[in-house]
Design brief:
Blueprint: H1 2-11, H2 27-51, E1 56-59, E2 63-71, E3 74-78, E4 82-86, H3 88-91, E5 92-93, E6 100-119, E7 147-153, E8 158-165, E9 185-194, E10 199-202, H4 209-213, E11 226-228, H5 229-235, H6 240-246, E12 248-259, E13 270-275, E14 287-295, E15 301-324, H7 327-331, H8 336-343
Parallel strand pairs: 12-15
Antiparallel strand pairs: 1-15, 2-9, 3-4, 5-6, 6-8, 6-15, 7-8, 9-10, 9-11, 12-13, 14-15
Length: about 350
């Protein structure tokens, strides 16, 4: 039995096989078959080539650089500081023009702070007390401003602390001090490169008189890279004056979707704006503190503490470039071997 099986298997090696086609002369089957063929062909042409542009090569890893420059001045007059002129040097952080920048819109300033003893703020839960026993000496106040001294100040109901006194006021002004910052402008220069196709582009089309006088508008000036801050916040769906009280974070999205088969001038950016921080609760906003230190004539150190509120702008760039692939040149032209020889390099090496 086993010998016969092996013999049949060996003889089958020398057999020649060919396909047999059966033609079904049935109109319904024939129509169904042709419909399937047309559907496949329609999918390839309509979806793969026309909709998805499968004949094009794509690069998603865009290389980008962003430079920003703000302009605008305003005059403020407060009871604490009197009249003061603000320009870009005063209200922009950091000053070097990065893709992320912060603009001051409101502030709490505490001048002439000196190291000493004063009551902690009543807004700090850990500082509340009834007797001295509630204030453990040498213990830092949790989320507070200093170190407990061991004494309870009955007038305020809080522990006495060793800190920079007087302490900071708890709330910012209801009317933002730099509310007029909505009229400031930011110039955003964005350069991109699709390294795969050796293609570079900038969003600045004209550096002459037009650039000095234009302000971005999606209808009248869609290619102007100068943006009014109030317009940016408005296009993100928010009111600048409301946001200026406690601050927030706005995203400026620059999207480059370039069909490099078309003219160079057709590769243009599209701008969109959105708010990035959560403004649905009491913790919303954006702020930080800094201090400037001085010494008086007697050598005693004092400082001015400033808590600034404002809007942080994040410039984000993405996009892709597409270019007609060289399938035709490599395989369908008479001199395709010449193109392949130029495109591909053959390297010979000795076996290891």
């Amino acid at each position: 039995m086993a010998e016969g099986t092996w013999k049949s298997l060996c003889l089958s090696v020398f057999d020649y096989k060919t396909e047999k086609y059966v033609i079904a002369q049935n109109k319904k089957v024939g129509v169904l078959f042709r419909c399937i063929q047309l559907a496949v062909l329609g999918y390839i042409i309509g979806w793969v080539f026309i909709t998805k542009k499968g004949y094009q090569d794509t690069e998603d890893s865009i290389q980008s650089s962003v430079m920003t420059k703000l302009k605008g001045v305003t005059l403020t007059n407060t009871s604490a500081n009197g009249p003061r002129l603000w320009d870009a040097v005063d209200y922009v952080f950091p000053p070097q023009g990065d893709s992320v920048f912060f603009v001051i819109t409101n502030l709490i300033q505490t001048p002439d702070q000196k190291l000493g003893h004063c009551p902690e703020s009543s807004k700090v839960p850990d500082a509340k007390c009834r007797t001295d026993d509630d204030c453990n000496p040498q213990e830092a106040v949790v989320a507070g401003n200093g170190i407990k001294t061991g004494h309870c100040i009955h007038e305020t109901g809080t522990c006495e602390i060793y800190a920079w006194c007087p302490i900071e006021k708890p709330s910012p002004p209801i009317n933002p001090i730099l509310g007029k910052a909505e009229n400031f402008t930011v110039y955003i220069k964005n350069s991109v490169r699709f390294s795969k196709f050796s293609f570079s582009r900038s969003n600045v089309k004209d550096t002459g008189v037009y650039l000095k006088n234009c302000t971005y508008d999606e209808i009248n000036h869609p290619y102007c890279p100068v943006f009014r801050l109030g317009d940016i916040v408005s296009r993100a769906g928010h009111d600048f004056q409301e946001m200026a009280i406690k601050g927030g974070v706005i995203g400026i999205l620059i999207e480059w979707n370039c069909d490099l088969d078309k003219s160079y001038s057709k590769c243009i950016p599209k701008y969109s704006f959105t708010r990035l921080d959560d403004n649905s609760n009491n913790t919303s906003g954006y702020n930080f503190r800094f201090a400037k230190y001085y010494k008086n004539i007697s050598g005693e150190e004092y400082r001015t503490l400033t808590k600034v509120f404002g809007i942080r702008f994040d410039v984000m760039v993405n996009g892709k470039g597409v270019f007609f692939c060289d399938l035709v040149l490599l395989y369908m032209m008479k001199k395709s071997t010449v193109y392949r020889a130029r495109k591909f390099e053959s390297v010979k090496y000795d076996s290891l």
